[in-house]
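Hello everyone,

My group is preparing for a crystallization screen and wants a predicted model to guide construct design. The compound we'll soak is zinc ion. Before spending weeks at the bench, it would help to have a computed complex in hand. I've included the protein sequence and the ligand's SMILES below. Output in structure-token form would be ideal because that's what our pipeline reads.
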Amino acid sequence: MSSAAETSVAPRSKFEPVIGLEVHVQLLTATKIFCSCSTRFGSPPNTNVCPVCLGMPGALPVLNKKAVEFATLAAMALNCRINETSIFARKNYFYPDLPKGYQISQYDKPLAEHGYIEVPSGEGRKRIGITRVHLEEDAGKSLHEGFPGAEEKTAIDLNRTGVPLIEMVSEPDIASPDEAYEYLTRLKEIILYTGVSDCNMEEGSLRCDANVSVRRHGQKEFGTKTEIKNVNSFRFIRDALEYEIGRQIDVIETGGTIRQETRLYNANEGKTYSMRSKEEAHDYRYFPEPDLLPLVVDEKWKAEIARALPELPEARRARMVKEYGVTEYDAQVLTVSKTLADQFEQAAEAAKNPKRVANLVQSELMGRLKAKGIGIEQSPISMRGVAVSADLVESGAISGKMLKDLYDLCFERGKDFPLVYEEEGRPQQSTDTSALEKIIEEVLAANPRQLEQYRAGKKTMLGFFVGQVMKASKGQANPQIVNGLLAKKLG
Ligand SMILES: [Zn+2]
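Reply:
Good plan to model first. Here are the tokens for the complex, ready for your pipeline.
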């Protein structure tokens, strides 16, 4: 028999985790999914409500067309098949912030199915399946603090009731907490690119629940899963999964059984706690929503929606590597948001030499940002600023050395390149040959030994003199002109 000390380390390798994620994002429509109330975040409690979203008897839902278009667009970006006909269903449960006693969702006929996204995995890439994408309405919010009497009472804010959501359910294809983290990062990035949600976790526009079980290697059947709910950052989800996998293995190794249940993660302690036994789908008594017609997204409408589909981050990165010669890593940084990638590409296209813009971003901007510990969105030099500086170097107006100095000033002053260039009096590298000739004579006079070596046939000394002249001109001279003048002078 093995001791407890042995079982705490060794068993991990005997088991493999199986993870599936359910992600809800709020759609950026101006109004709710079944009424014309505003979806604005932060309004005074219970001000964005009407008989429909309050669930008054006799009030009828009317489907928001924009919500359908956004949901379809997101599903397309996730490589899903769009079902021409989908059905809204009532999901029945009682909760204080759900005034109707049911939530309108989709059940056996969702809007879209059979999608996938790709995540980096080891050396290569791994495809993670997306089972379904469906539309539903959000519930209200129970408030436990921030109002008079909060010690004894719970308040209800129904502003969020009826806000449109999509739920994206992954296949249980995720094999580690790190992979779950990657999946969420990619998923969020794709949704942000489509513009259908701001995915703001602090405001609850993106929420994630994780299903996790463990099984022995080689075992076909899934183990009993638990669901971890309402974790509010991707990092915490990774931590929560890490903890939960270890907990399940410990339970099994010590002869216990896993109960199917919902668990909450306490980020301060890094542990999950049992909240309630998990509901099965049949507990919700789903049935088709009698107040809504089947939703039909036909070929024509689908084609219209597809026109709004932007180039997605993965494809864009691959193209940028090819087109601008940037590294994979820099392409990653430049595509961190669609806005930044758009700005970069606009600047690059507007500049005389797009590759030089990319080079300057890589060689001059990234390092300075890193040294300052700030992200590219906080860069004092904008993409347009980089393009302006690239053109000045391209035309020979300023030297590489001058550009470096100007960039330093931009970071010191927290100002964009064109502004600092103006403040410095639009410096030009020196093309004044009489001044340069004087410097050259001084340099030659000051280095007689090197001059002798040059005359004796050591032609590489030319580089030394160019360097000395550049130094004496404080980087203001144009190296090509210096080269020409020196060559003439030395015969
Ligand atoms: Zn309403």
